[in-house]
């Protein structure tokens, strides 16, 4: 999905595991008046194709890179949540893209490392439940915690294909391997350790450099943009404004 003005800077947003592009649309709405805003469905998610293979980290990053090439995107602001953060981190290393800034919302390596050996079977069972549930029942399930997102979450869960288990099987490399040297100003958003105890602040501090800021978001879990949407947007706006990237 592309919206906004093609005369403005490009903001490209990449969604998380089992989400779709619509899940990030409330966040993207802030930028459409003055920016060229692009959202997409990762393979196996939303309305994208679900081939049998290609769920390794580099192939999914290549999908994003090919999208940027097709749309002739250069100098974008890149925003990625979870799975999207991993793809964004990897594609940002490419010399031809030259991102202006990067926002990584809870890169998933720390979460996946903490989930343990039962995660694959649990995710398989979850995908099966989603496939047999009705959209209405899923929306009702999400309503109490995320009323603003309940409908799009239900849609995303109905759209996701079982092929994405390939992502669960391979897991994620730590961020310091996925993006060892951020090429531009980079904001890493992490959830509140009281909500998400899997976070490793010391490893984040070791990864950070002069171009990088790590921000812990009070009261947020893994989906910071859903748990604390206004605060998340305020933090992102402040970061972009500091680097002259917010109109």
Automatic annotation (TrEMBL):
Signal peptide: none annotated. PANTHER family: HYDROLASE ALPHA/BETA FOLD FAMILY, PEROXISOMAL MEMBRANE PROTEIN LPX1. GO terms for molecular function: hydrolase activity. This is Alpha/beta hydrolase. Gene3D superfamilies: alpha/beta hydrolase. Residues 11-230 form the AB hydrolase-1 domain. It comes from Natrinema salsiterrestre. It comes from the Archaea. InterPro entries: AB_hydrolase_1, AB_hydrolase_fold, Carboxylesterase_BioH. Keywords: Hydrolase.
